[in-house]
Specification:
This protein is α+β, with helices and mostly antiparallel strands. Helix content is about 20%, strand content about 20%. The protein contains five helices and eleven strands; from the N terminus they run αβββαβββαββαβββα. The radius of gyration is 18 Å and the shape is globular. It starts with 12 loop residues before the first helix and ends with a helix.
């Protein structure tokens, strides 16, 4: 596997930590922290993800984990061991907050119109690794080249859909489960060793990246409600008139 230091133009977690797409202004409006769920992203649910099986990242037998939040696993078909929860696997590209400008966001119909006015090729992303956050969430980190389709789309969205609650996912990821506790340090190490092998196999099988659904983008009101899907319409690249987008 190529070392991250040899791939300086790839959007890794380290790259995202120091790369400024537009100086995101999220949280400037007082309503942003309460209304950050609406976003443009990738639908990564099991039913639309034939290339990789995110369920391979779960520990449903609780061999390594001893606790999760009541939502359980958010990927690979959802979870019904605690509460009946659907599969909500997704990766956020651009967050824009609430459905109105007064609260620092943008109207959903306007955002959808901008999405549909852009032509783009199928989106592919590269699985990086499974990460445990300081808030005890497991997430699958994703990489992409800034010049790739998704990198260009992020640049367009952050310009055409700039707003007080506007922000981008940093790092770019799919949340797997929240409220995680491991049975022991050894159990934690064993889990991450297994996940490293799974992700390495995906990277080997899909060197050009993984495509979720048809490679299109989705408008999410929240993690459980998809309002619209826009499919790719080009074989390569991205086409958009920024000036025209601002006049929609």
């Amino acid at each position: 596997m190529q070392d991250e230091a040899d791939r300086p133009n790839v959007v890794t977690p380290e790259f995202m930590a120091r790369y400024d797409h537009l100086t995101p202004s999220g949280h400037m409006h007082p309503a942003c922290k309460l209304n950050r769920l609406a976003n443009i992203g990738l639908d990564c649910r099991a039913e639309v993800s034939p290339q990789i099986d995110l369920n391979l990242l779960t520990d449903r037998s609780y061999t390594h984990l001893c606790e999760t939040s009541d939502d359980g696993w958010l990927i690979g078909g959802g979870d019904n061991t605690k509460l009946e929860r659907p599969d909500t696997a997704h990766a956020e590209i651009w967050r824009f907050g609430p459905d109105n400008k007064a609260d620092g966001g943008l109207p959903f119909d306007y955002v959808e119109a901008v999405m549909r006015a852009i032509k783009f090729a199928p989106i592919r992303v590269i699985p990086s690794r499974v990460n445990l956050t300081p808030s005890n969430e497991l997430e699958l980190l994703l990489e992409y080249d800034p010049g790739s389709v998704i990198g260009q789309l992020l640049g367009i969205f952050s310009t055409a859909l700039a707003c007080p609650c506007g922000d981008y996912g940093n790092p770019f990821h799919i949340t797997l489960v929240r409220g995680v506790k491991f049975r022991s340090d050894a159990a934690q190490a064993a889990y991450f060793s297994e996940m490293e092998s799974v992700v390495a196999q995906w990277r080997s099988d899909h060197p050009e990246g993984v495509m979720f659904n048809d490679g299109g983008i989705d408008l999410f009101a929240n993690r459980e409600k998809i309002l619209a899907h826009v499919s790719p319409s080009l074989s390569s690249g991205v086409e958009a008139d920024i000036a025209a987008l601002r006049e929609i």
